[in-house]
Structures are given as structure tokens and as C-alpha cells.
Amino acid sequence: MKILIIGATGTIGRAVAEGLSGRHAVIKVGHRRGDHQVDLASLDSIKALYRAVGPFDAVVCAAGLAKFGPLAELTERDFLLGLSNKLMGQVNLVLAGLPVIADRGSFTLTSGVLSMEPMAGSAAISPVNAAIEGFVRAAALEMPRGVRINVVSPPWVKETLAAMGMDSSTGQPAASVARGYLAAVDGAMNGIVIDARVYAGHGA
Ligand SMILES: NC(=O)c1ccc[n+]([C@@H]2O[C@H](COP(=O)([O-])OP(=O)(O)OC[C@H]3O[C@@H](n4cnc5c(N)ncnc54)[C@H](OP(=O)(O)O)[C@@H]3O)[C@@H](O)[C@H]2O)c1
């Protein structure tokens, strides 16, 4: 299959690209890096990406910005970042991609366990992740031509915690988080929220 990975230059996306590369033709898309560039916050940019890559079988999105911070310090602008980038960016990947994706293709999006398991600081992220999961469950009911849509919900990734200088012992390695994406692309599931922790302890 020809698979577009949005966020392929990032921590999770890189591991997904490694996991899929052996069996599939992977197009690595970043914001500034990668084979192609896209800005998730811009529908025009997403449409330009699809025009540039031509026909494809699957889209994996491991990208999307949202603001983490104390509730008392969050502004409307902070909430709008997540809504316009992580939520609507992924929704627009689907809306603009549906007319061009191959029959029986698939979309695999990204949320995060903060959707159901919030923590202090996640008030602007949790609703975005929950909305993505709600979108996927509903959109799956109307996918045409055998197209599937799923979402992977990662926990804190070990490499991310290490990069932030935090205790990474509780984080899940990106390679095993990637297993959730591989299952969505290669499997037959539709409308599923995949808790990546199911794959903890598995390599890519
Ligand atoms: N890492 C975690 O612990 C964790 C946990 C739960 C959920 N998540 C979610 O998983 C997703 C990926 O996280 P990550 O940690 O792998 O991210 P990351 O390492 O920061 O990488 C971000 C990726 O997204 C691309 N990107 C940045 N801004 C973009 C934009 N405006 N439009 C399109 N692409 C853009 C980057 O491209 P360039 O390299 O070209 O800039 C890069 O490929 C995010 O939605 C995040 O919320 C992550």
C-alpha cells in the first residue's frame, strides 16, 4: 500500500514509519521536514498535499498541536490552538482525503489517553482528544467504499518524557506505541479507539 504518514518526522510518527516501511510504500510528511510538508491548521495546505502525492491507500496522522498548562493560565487562544490544529487538522485530513483515498483504504488518527484520564494541566488537551475519538466513532458509520477510520490513543511516550527531562520510567516506548497504528492500518477494524497501552511490551 501507499501510505501517507503525517508527523513522520516526530517521536511517534518516526516509529510508525519504521514499522510500516518494510511492507508498504511510505510517504513521510512533516511540517518543516519530511518528503512532503503540510500545515494541519490549513485546509488549503492539506489539499495541496493530497494533490502533490497523488493516489494513496492510507493516511496515518501522528501530529497535532494542543496546549498543556494550568487551567488558571489557559486563554481562549490556547483552546483554539488544539481545536484548529489537532482536532480540525485531523478532521480536514479525512474530509479532503475521502474523495481521493483508494477503495478499502484507511485513516488512522491520534488522540491520547488524556481524553478519558485527565491530569492537572490537560484542560485544553482532554476535550480535543475526546472530540477526535467522538469524530472517529461517528465518521466510521458513514465511510464509503469500504474505507475504514480508527484512532490511536497513546499514553505518555518514554522518549517524550526523557526529552522533557521528566521521569521516563512510566512512559511507553514509541516502538510499542507504533504497534497500535500498525494494527489499524493492516487490520480490518473500523471506528475503534485503540488504547496503545495494549501493546506495551511489544517491539515495532
Ligand atoms: N509523545 C507523547 O507522549 C504523546 C502522548 C499522547 C498523545 N500524543 C500525540 O501524538 C501526536 C504526535 O506526538 P509526538 O510526540 O510524536 O510529536 P513530535 O515528536 O513533537 O512530532 C510532531 C510531528 O508533527 C509535525 N508537525 C508539527 N506541527 C505540524 C503542523 N502544524 N502540521 C503538520 N504537522 C506538524 C512535525 O513535523 P516537523 O518535524 O517537520 O516539524 C513532526 O513530524 C500529537 O498529536 C500528540 O498530542 C503524544
Sum this structure up briefly.
Helix content is about 40%, strand content about 20%. It is built from six helices and seven strands. Strand 1, helix 1 and strand 2 form a beta-alpha-beta unit.
Keywords:
204 residues, alpha/beta, 38% helix, 19% strand, binds NADP nicotinamide-adenine-dinucleotide phosphate
How far apart the termini lie comes to: 18 Å
Count all strands and give the number. Answer: 7
Q: Give, in order, the helices and strands.
A: EHEEHEHEHEHHE
Fraction in beta strands = 15-25%
Name the helicity range.
25-40%
Strand order of the largest sheet: 3-2-1-4-5-6-7
Summarize the helices and strands and which ones pair or pack.
Elements: E1 2-6, H1 11-21, E2 25-30, E3 36-37, H2 43-53, E4 56-61, H3 76-97, E5 101-110, H4 126-139, E6 148-153, H5 158-163, H6 174-186, E7 193-195
Parallel strand pairs: 1-2, 1-4, 2-3, 4-5, 5-6, 6-7
The chain binds NADP nicotinamide-adenine-dinucleotide phosphate (NAP).
Residues 6-13, 30-34, 38-41, 62-66, 85-86, 110, 112, 154, 156-157, 160 line the site of NADP nicotinamide-adenine-dinucleotide phosphate.
